[in-house]
């Protein structure tokens, strides 16, 4: 079975070695084995678990919540409902974030059109005669 060093995993996942050590210190990597010298040896399944950790982190989940999830995984089938509920909550949070981003994108698209037409006309005056625009 192939194992990876911490620097190989960091490069593979576009993370820093410091981040991986921090995750380990916070108890997010209890599954990672060490050799007799104490060097972390990552398996492919560990990399997959780190991808889930990064996914949860990207949803805004705090490290403490991710640690709880990792603990539930270690506890086995008794925590399937908690894990399912947690992912349903994450899904709802991401959907809300996406809706906010859609609103933000609509404003950005409006301003891109505003400036494009102003550039084509050589002046913003074309917008000022129509209506009061949002702040430049």
TrEMBL record:
Residues 3-72 form the HTH merR-type domain. InterPro entries: DNA-bd_dom_put_sf, MerR-type_HTH_dom, MerR_fam. PROSITE patterns: HTH_MERR_1, HTH_MERR_2. SMART domains: HTH_MERR. Residues 84-111 form a coiled coil. Signal peptide: none annotated. Keywords: Coiled coil, DNA-binding. The keyword Magnesium does not apply. It comes from the Bacteria. The keyword rRNA processing does not apply. This is MerR family transcriptional regulator. GO terms for molecular function: DNA binding; DNA-binding transcription factor activity. SUPFAM superfamilies: Putative DNA-binding domain.
């Amino acid at each position: 079975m192939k194992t990876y060093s911490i620097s190989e995993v960091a490069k593979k996942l576009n993370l820093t070695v410091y981040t991986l050590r921090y995750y380990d210190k916070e108890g997010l990597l209890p599954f990672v084995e060490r050799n007799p010298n104490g060097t972390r040896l990552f398996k492919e399944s560990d990399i997959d678990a780190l991808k889930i950790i990064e996914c949860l982190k990207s949803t805004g989940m705090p490290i403490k919540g991710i640690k709880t999830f990792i603990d539930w995984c270690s506890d086995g089938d008794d925590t399937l409902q908690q894990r399912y509920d947690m992912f349903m909550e994450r899904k709802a949070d991401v959907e809300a974030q996406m809706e906010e981003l859609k609103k933000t994108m609509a404003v950005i698209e409006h301003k891109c059109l505003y400036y494009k037409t102003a550039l084509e006309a050589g002046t913003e005056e074309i917008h000022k005669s129509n209506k009061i625009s949002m702040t430049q």
